[in-house]
Write a structure and sequence with these properties.
- 12% of the residues lie in helices and 33% in strands.
- It has a six-stranded antiparallel beta sheet with strand order 1-4-5-6-3-2.
- 18% of the residues are buried.
- The chain has one helix and six strands, in the order αββββββ.
- It has one domain.
- The protein is mainly β.
């Protein structure tokens, strides 16, 4: 039995409740931790993982053009997906992480 969608709905109401006057979800400031590449994103108590897998420089570091260890930007929740963008034109998409846990612990 798959329960994670139900578990994520209530905690995400705070994020999904941030809407514009047109009823669309709005963007919210965030700091994306990416010391070991772009893998996971935590919003409140919820973990999301990058849709296309890890994005790094091949050595476990952020790709060229990204800050290290964090990239400031903003996120928007649409359905069960989180969209990230920043002032440099980067954009990434995240989905709920299995078990609501980060895929890798990076120190």
């Amino acid at each position: 039995m798959r329960r994670w969608p139900v578990l994520l709905v209530a905690p995400l109401l705070g994020l999904s409740g941030c809407t514009s006057s047109a009823g669309e979800p709005s963007w919210r400031s965030v700091s994306l931790y990416m010391h070991c590449g772009i893998r996971d994103l935590q919003i409140d108590a919820n973990w999301f993982t990058r849709v296309d897998g890890v994005l790094d420089d091949g050595n476990g570091n952020p790709p060229s053009g990204w800050d290290n260890p964090e990239q400031r930007g903003e996120v928007k929740l649409v359905g069960d997906r989180v969209f990230f963008r920043d002032e440099h034109g980067h954009s990434e998409q995240f989905k709920p992480a299995p078990g609501n846990q980060p895929t890798t612990i990076c120190s």
